[in-house]
Design brief:
heterotrimer; A mainly alpha (315); B alpha+beta (247); C alpha/beta (953); B: 247 residues; alpha+beta; Alpha-Beta Plaits; 3-stranded mixed beta sheet; two-stranded antiparallel sheet; 6 helices; 11 strands; 15% helix; C: 953 residues; alpha/beta; Rossmann fold; 7-stranded mixed beta sheet; 6-stranded mixed beta sheet; 27 helices; binds ligand MGD; binds iron/sulfur cluster; binds molybdenum atom
């Protein structure tokens, strides 16, 4: 699939944003974070800002962004629509929770409940996002059990890192973000490896033979495509990345997204002071960059069944 | 509405005979021509005279080779929307622009609602949807809804453009929901099949498989050779032929 | 809120106006119905009532509006200002253009009309252009047939008085066994497709003999991937098998062919091998019953075998006996043929058996009484439901004439010519064998300032008909009807530029071309031809070909090489006449002709070429084009000419609605309202053949009478099929030293060898000349169904389908050579080298490579953007094909053509393949970039065609 920048930015930024809101809700309610105002302002700013930036970026993908509002109507069947609805809905508890935290200095009890609600809404939104992909039977590399946990874990991981960064930037000593990150990075990495292992090892049940129904005659090969330059289908669905490049990019994603952030976070936890500040300041953006690469690969490595009509033997 | 309508009795669609399709692209171009002025117009072409021309088409003709060597087959393969009974291209649509008509099963896009999110094209296994990036909306085969119901056309012309033009008559149009319709009978007689049945989209359009070859690889009953009557040497043939003259 | 499921308009007229005309996206000439809306073309569809396409339309036809609105359309007459080939022109007015042309041509006509070479390409106006050339007085006229299909046409016309393609068709409704040789698409584009659809639907067997399994071959019941150039041998092996088993239609042969005619057997005599005739010129046969030698009359049943004592005491043999002796020879056995053709001997035997079974074991019977030419009444029509079709896979080889004759022979032996289920003539065919038209061009027929004393093209029946000087030098610029190409019935367009350039046989002054892309895809040796067109005499600085006038409608490659460009209209802007005098559109059931009418007015300063030609003729004062007072005879130009011109009283260009009130059909007085009658009838005319006359036309009294009535035949005489060809033997005798007109010594052996009165097989010349080792592969091109030669590349839709091409080769060969898909490779012939991209496939003869024809374009042509794939990755095979054969003993280089007809041997090409560096990823050779002719519109970057019809924007 064509890795559209707008969609990559959208899922990465809003993923991190929802991750932040999720951790704020969970860690606020449990008392791990005090309702510190400056920290709250920055953390909510990053969270809601990430979400909003992501959503805005996603409209750049649309042929008619001015009609984007129409996308809220079909929540009964469409995960994209549901995602739209959920993302908007999340603003309500998240916003209220933020108001409580920042302006009233409250993040527990009724406010904590709003926090938990916001965390749940964030999860729901990410589930919807993941399901946009997870539900596409046409793309076996998306339509599998690994996708949802991946989305959730990556959001949690980046959210936690950014939360920690907010703490560092506001000069706060608290480290639950770092601890959450340290827990979620290995999980995310494990899930990502699992995903990659899965897509490398399994093929779609659809083949050139089933796509054409000609399998009984023997192996099916494309002899001539209907057109000699790429059309929408090929540009959108036929995007192909060479194995070599994919491997390289996976390494980058792993190092930038998991290995270094994990190390840096561990260092930050172990060594307070300037080192911590530097480590955290690097970890979050680095991880996000890693996730951007990961997300790019998520699209680039996805194979659509339409390619079976264009010479692919499996999708 | 992107919820699918309850399955209707009428299921209009195409039956494509791969046994006789010669891959001439007539259906594809005639489709383009008709629809260029029709309900989905224009079928925009980008850089039409440039390095990489890229246009919107609703019907495209591929050619495959199946099997190896001399016993293999070359099969021409037109591909357009199959007007599936349970297509995700409809249900994924966030706006309701993509819809399936209850009355005849035709799957259409309402361009006025479409936000151009492309998701429906991702959800179509068959590559039947093409995004018009100039108009910013998704477009697709309309099953020539503006022909088949168009009373301004003579009755015989109320068939899809691609069907009307196919020179070998490899394309048939009709109601696949009616088991007694000509197309349904054809499908039954020739073993018409679904593309990617594993997707579960239940395509309405059916493909008729190439008939088996009738050459040395299959012909059991065919004569092997003629029995020689004439002795080739030494003028042995002289005289024989006149025996055959009946007058 | 907007309604999600808007209702579909149920009464929406397609446009506001409908007009009928004839398609011209190719030469098939289907009827079309054009819907106009707000003055624009909304939709073109097939005309359901039209005899050719019956409502269907091919890909090209459907893309007609993109051709019509193409940004490559020429806008105004152009005069060259830069060097030739640079593409630098100045726009001029029509008056200036015509004055200039009149001056150039007038000078020639006053001195030596032969200095005008007027050649036309894919036009359908040969009834006009050929006539115009004779009015002008030059014999140097022909159309593209010489490089296209003259082997097919000549072999048919010298054998059965008809031919495949436009002179006959398969009985699609009744045939049970259909054998197709070397056809990818053909001119009968839609009729063949419709026919195949029918035939397969009925369960008839379809066998395709073709090295490549695409298109029609893909849907064949059996594909025979023959080695190119060996079909003749395959067919002769089938004949061998049939003869051996006595599975031929002896009655048919005795009655309708010259199989029983006695051939003089007197080696060394001047008439050896000719038919024995009585003093009335009637051929002699030996009566089966009496054993007497007698004239071949309706009542005589001739013997087919044995020997006879001729009245003059010599011996005569029925031609069938010679035929049987030839093909029963083990030389033509399936086992021998298997080695050359690559077809297993069992397959050849089985196909022969299948043919015999289909022809004889289940004849098709139509309960329709008929009467043959001899007055014998037949209760019903008994047919041999075996049919064949062949085209350029046979035609475009140097052994094509004999191969095609062999195919006709096979059909004749099976008794299937014009019988139910067989091959059927399309009126005005069958014609006398060969048609009684002789080419004009002898010295006494050419006079300065006078018309030529006859038509420039025709059908020689002996050496006296050749257009040669006393010493054997050709008299025509293309050497047609010379010893090098005696039966060149369509001329040799492929030699004109070379000969004009080299002044062989003589220099010319003006080359006048119409609708032929001669600097590109329609030439062999394209790079060489481009050089010849711009070559200058080093001393005078004059171009070797002093003047070139060209008419094209689009900015093709050839435009850049013209001095004066006469821009034509598109096919939707003019009258055209698809006349029975040219290439008929009849089918086996009816005679038909058609017109084109202007659908829209030109929006540029262009004129229909035919109008221009008539205007030019009047300015030149050509007798047929001016009245006695010198004023133009056809002031209304082409439409005026179509209606009012007569070849002889009652015979005009159109056969329909003649007579003052349109009451006559076939022949009749001029009808001033004729064009309106055509327009009222959807632009075509059709006359059905009477039921009783539908088959056995060559011998069917009802048909012959009808054909005379319609003006197709002069006399109601049977057309006796010529299995043994006497005209060929006459040439052979001349080569053997008999007669007044004999070939120069250097041509003797060649003429003697190839003018065999019975078909024989020899390997294509190039293979023999270059040897099989250095160039082990055959290289072919095929017509893509969705592209017409070079002219579809300007079409916004068609070029999306075929915007570049690859060299296709067998997967096994690719693996052996280490070549994978998309690799860059060199393809090397003994003439040149091209660099192209490879694509592997399964369905191709292992030793054959091929590509789609004419996709490659010269950079800058057709108003395509620089960098267009057509020129970056597309390529032209023609660069590899030499127009001449390698030098023979004595150093002479014959044309790369069939020795009988001069048909260009495109498909003899032999090549080898080597891997090429991928570096710059562009195809080679890189022809120079052409400048865009002035006045062309800008290329749109987005095409929203049709948006206004929907009422948007
Ligand atoms: N390698 C290879 N070469 C081949 C062949 C092959 O099989 N292989 N086939 C050969 C054969 S059979 C043929 S017939 C030739 C065909 O080759 P050409 O006769 O050259 O055919 P086109 O490329 O169609 O070019 C005809 C020209 O007519 C112009 N034209 C189109 N419409 C009009 C019109 O309405 N008016 C005027 N005045 N001009 C118009 C086009 O712009 C174009 O320049 O190619 C030959 N060349
Ligand atoms: N769409 C389209 N239609 C056209 C044209 C076009 O350009 N485009 N051009 C028109 C013109 S001018 C012409 S002349 C006709 C030509 O019509 P076709 O005769 O169909 O011409 P080609 O495409 O040259 O096809 C020749 C076929 O012969 C095969 N072949 C080559 N050598 C041999 C051989 O030795 N033996 C056998 N058995 N087969 C062989 C090739 O594989 C190919 O399939 O088409 C006309 N129709
Ligand atoms: S073919 Fe594709 S676009 Fe058409 S209904 Fe089925 S899924 Fe939808
Ligand atoms: S592109 Fe248009 S039709 Fe398709 S899913 Fe998006 S809104 Fe619906
Ligand atoms: S039914 Fe109409 S829109 Fe669909 S492919 Fe055929 S011509 Fe095109
Ligand atoms: S028009 Fe008919 S024969 Fe031609 S590609 Fe389409 S389906 Fe096949
Ligand atoms: S075959 Fe196609 S291009 Fe040729 S005349 Fe017919 S419709 Fe036109
Ligand atoms: Mo041709």
């Amino acid at each position: 699939m064509h890795p559209a920048l707008s969609v990559i930015l959208f899922t990465t930024a809003s993923g991190a944003g929802y991750g932040i809101i999720f951790w704020l809700g969970v860690l606020g309610e449990t008392g791990a974070y005090p309702p510190d105002r400056t920290f709250g302002l920055l953390a909510f700013g990053l969270g809601l800002g990430g979400i909003t930036a992501g959503l805005l970026a996603s409209t750049a993908h649309l042929g008619h962004p001015e009609r984007a509002w129409r996308a809220f109507s079909q929540w009964r069947t469409s995960w994209l629509s549901r995602e739209g609805v959920a993302s908007l809905a999340t603003y309500v508890p998240a916003g209220l929770f933020g108001i409580g935290w920042v302006f009233l200095g409250e993040n527990r009890e009724i406010w904590g409940f709003l926090g938990v609600l916001a965390a749940a809404a964030s999860v729901v939104t990410i589930v919807c996002t993941a399901y946009i992909y997870r539900s596409l039977k046409t793309i076996q590399r998306w339509c599998n059990a690994w996708v949802l946990p991946n989305y959730l874990a990556l959001a949690a991981m980046t959210g936690a890192l950014w939360l920690d960064l907010a703490a560092v930037l506001t000069g706060e000593p608290f480290t639950p973000g770092a601890e959450a990150a340290l827990c979620s990075i290995p999980v995310a990495a494990f899930l990502k490896f699992g995903y990659w292992r899965f897509i490398d090892a399994t093929h779609s049940t659809s083949t050139a033979e089933s796509a054409t129904g000609l399998g009984s005659l023997g192996k099916v090969r494309l002899f001539e495509a209907p057109h000699t330059s790429d059309n929408y289908l090929m540009k959108e669905m036929g995007f192909h990345i060479a194995r070599k490049h994919a491997t390289k990019l996976r390494c980058i994603a792993v190092i930038a997204g998991f290995v270094l952030p994990c190390l840096l976070t561990a260092i930050a936890l172990a060594m307070p002071g300037a080192i911590r500040v530097i480590a955290v300041l690097i970890a979050a953006p680095l991880a996000t960059a890693g996730v951007l690469v990961e997300r790019w690969l998520f699209f680039a490595e996805a194979r659509h069944t339409v390619t079976l009509y264009y010479g692919a033997s499996t999708a | 509405m992107t919820s699918l309508p309850p399955p209707g009795a009428k299921r209009l669609g195409l039956v494509i005979d791969l046994d006789i399709c010669v891959g001439c692209h007539a259906c594809a171009v005639n489709c383009k021509e008709w629809n260029s002025g029709g309900m989905a117009a224009p079928l925009t072409d980008l850089q039409p005279y440039g390095v990489e021309p890229d246009g919107v088409w609703f019907n495209r003709v591929h050619t495959f080779e199946a099997g190896e060597g001399a016993t293999g087959r070359t099969v021409h393969f037109p591909r357009s929307c199959l007007h599936c009974a349970e297509p995700d291209c409809v249900t994924v649509c966030p706006t309701g622009a993509s819809y399936k008509r209850a009355e005849d099963g035709i799957v259409l896009v309402n361009e006025d609602l479409c936000i151009g999110c492309k998701l429906c094209s991702w959800a179509c296994p068959y590559g039947a949807r093409e995004f018009d990036s100039d108009a910013g909306v998704m477009k697709k085969c309309t099953l020539c809804a503006d022909r088949i119901y168009n009373e301004a056309l003579e009755e015989v012309d109320r068939v899809p453009a691609c069907v009307a033009t196919c020179p070998v008559s490899a394309r048939h149009f009709g109601d696949l929901g009616d088991p007694q319709s000509e197309v349904s009978l054809l499908v039954a007689a020739r073993g018409g099949y679904d593309l990617m049945p594993e997707m579960g989209y239940k395509p309405t359009n059916k493909y008729l498989p190439p008939r088996p070859r009738r050459d040395q690889t299959t012909c059991g009953a065919a004569p092997v050779a003629l029995a020689p009557v004439v002795v080739a040497e030494a003028d042995g043939f002289l005289g024989w032929i006149d025996r055959l003259l009946s007058r | 809120m907007t309604q999600i499921d808007p209702p579909i308009a149920r009464n929406q007229p397609i446009g506001d106006e409908v007009k009928f005309t004839t398609c011209y996206m190719c030469a098939c000439r289907c009827g079309i119905k054009v819907h106009l809306k707000d003055g624009g073309i909304r939709f073109i569809e097939g005309n359901r009532n039209h005899p050719v396409n019956k409502g269907v339309l091919c890909a090209k036809g459907s893309a007609g509006l993109m051709q019509h609105y193409s940004p490559a359309r020429l806008q105004k007459p152009l005069l060259r200002v830069g060097p030739r080939g640079s593409g630098e022109f100045r726009e001029i007015e029509w008056d200036e253009a015509l004055a200039l042309a009149t001056q150039w041509l007038g000078d020639i006509r006053r001195t030596d009309p032969r200095k005008l070479a007027f050649f036309t390409g894919r036009d359908q106006s040969q009834a006009l252009t050929g006539w115009w050339a004779s009015q002008f007085g030059t014999p140097n006229y022909a159309a593209h047939g010489g490089f296209c299909s003259v082997n097919m046409a000549a072999a048919g016309l010298y054998t059965i008085g008809g031919s495949f393609w436009e002179f006959g068709e398969t009985d699609w409704d009744l045939t049970r066994y259909f054998l197709m040789f070397g056809v990818a698409e053909d001119h009968d584009s839609n009729p063949i497709k419709k026919g195949l659809g029918k035939l397969k639907g009925r369960g008839a067997k379809f066998v395709s003999v073709n090295p490549i399994r695409t298109g029609y071959s893909a849907i064949a019941d059996e594909w025979i991937g023959i080695k190119p150039g060996t079909d003749g041998l395959f067919v002769m092996a089938l004949i061998h098998e049939l003869l051996r088993a006595e599975r031929v239609d002896a009655d048919y042969l005795a009655r309708y062919t010259n199989a029983g005619w006695l051939v003089i057997d007197d080696p060394g005599a001047a008439d050896h091998g000719l038919f024995a005739r009585n003093d009335k010129g009637e051929p002699l046969v030996r009566d089966l019953e009496t054993g007497e030698v007698t004239a071949f009359t309706p009542t005589v049943a001739p013997r087919l075998s044995g020997e006879a004592l001729l009245p003059d005491g010599r011996s005569g043999v029925p031609s069938f006996t010679l035929l049987a002796a030839r093909y029963l020879d083990p030389r033509y056995s399936p086992d021998r043929a298997a080695t050359e053709t690559g077809i297993p001997a069992e397959t050849i035997r089985r196909i022969a058996a299948e043919l015999a079974q289909a022809a004889f074991d289940a004849p098709v019977i139509i309960e329709q009484p008929w009467t043959d030419w001899a007055g014998r009444r037949h209760d019903r029509m008994v047919g041999r439901p075996v049919s064949m079709h062949a085209m350029r896979g046979i035609s475009a080889h140097s052994n094509g004439f004999h191969t095609c004759r062999a195919i006709h022979l096979l059909q004749t032996l099976l008794g299937s010519i014009d019988t139910p289920g067989g091959f059927r003539y399309e009126p005005p065919f069958p014609r006398p064998i060969p048609p009684a038209i002789k080419p004009a061009g002898h010295a006494h027929q050419i006079q300065a300032g006078k018309p030529l004393a006859g038509p420039p093209l025709g059908f020689p029946t002996g050496p006296e008909d050749l257009l040669v000087e006393a010493d054997g030098t050709p008299r025509r610029i293309d050497k047609a009807f010379s010893w090098e190409a005696p039966l060149a019935a369509h001329g040799l367009l492929h030699l004109v530029i070379r000969n004009a350039w080299s002044g062989d046989p003589y220099p010319i002054d003006t080359l006048f071309l119409y609708m032929a892309n001669m600097s590109w895809n329609s030439s062999m040796n394209t790079s060489g031809v481009m050089q010849m067109l711009v070559d200058q005499d080093p001393e005078t600085g004059d171009y070797k070909i002093p003047r070139i006038i060209y008419s094209d409608a689009y900015a093709s490659e050839m435009v850049a090489y013209a001095d004066l460009v006469l821009p034509d209209t598109t096919y939707l802007e003019r009258y055209d006449c698809i006349s029975l005098l040219d290439r008929p559109i009849s089918n086996a059931e009816a005679a038909a002709d058609a017109i084109r009418q202007p659908i829209v007015k030109p929006d540029r300063d262009v004129r229909p070429f035919q109008d221009v030609l008539i205007d030019l003729g009047a300015r030149l004062g050509l007798p047929g084009l001016v009245k006695p007072d010198g004023s133009p005879r056809y002031p209304g130009f082409y439409p005026d000419y179509i209606v009012n011109h007569e070849r002889k009283p009652g015979f005009g260009l159109l056969a329909g609605w003649r007579g003052a009130k349109g009451e006559d059909h076939g022949t009749g007085p001029i009808n001033p309202g004729q064009l309106d009658a055509y327009i009222d009838n959807e632009c075509f005319w059709r006359a059905h053949i009477p039921e009783e006359a539908l088959y056995f036309k060559h011998s069917n009294r009802a048909y012959l009478d009808w054909a005379v009535k319609m003006g197709f035949l002069d006399k109601a005489e049977p057309v006796t099929l010529q299995v043994y060809s006497e005209p060929l033997q006459r040439f052979r005798l001349a080569a053997q030293g008999h007669g007044k007109v004999q070939p120069p010594d250097e041509h003797r052996a060649r003429v003697e060898r190839y003018f065999d009165p019975l078909p024989f097989w020899y390997p294509p010349f190039e293979e023999t000349d270059v040897g099989p080792d250095a160039f082990p592969l055959s290289a072919l091109t095929q017509r893509p169904m969705a592209m017409y030669h070079s002219w579809g590349s300007q079409n916004a839709w068609l070029r999306q389908i075929h915007g570049e091409n690859r060299l296709h080769l067998h997967r096994g060969l690719g693996q052996e050579l280490g070549i994978a898909d998309d690799d860059w490779i060199y393809v090397i012939s003994n003439h040149g080298r091209i660099k192209v991209q490879a694509k592997l496939m399964e369905g191709v003869n292992r030793d054959t490579v091929w590509t789609w024809n004419a996709i490659g374009k010269q950079r800058g042509a057709w108003n395509l953007a620089p960098g267009a794939k057509e020129s970056e990755r597309g390529f032209l095979m023609n660069h590899l094909i030499n127009d001449l054969l390698p030098a023979r003993d004595g150093g002479y280089r014959y044309a790369n053509a069939d020795p009988v007809t001069g048909q260009a041997a495109w498909y003899d090409l032999r090549v080898r393949i080597e891997k090429a560096p991928a570096e710059d990823e562009v195809s080679e050779p890189r022809a120079p970039m052409l400048a865009l002719p002035p006045g062309l519109p800008e290329r749109p970057s987005v095409l929203r065609y049709g948006v206004k019809f929907r009422g948007l924007k």
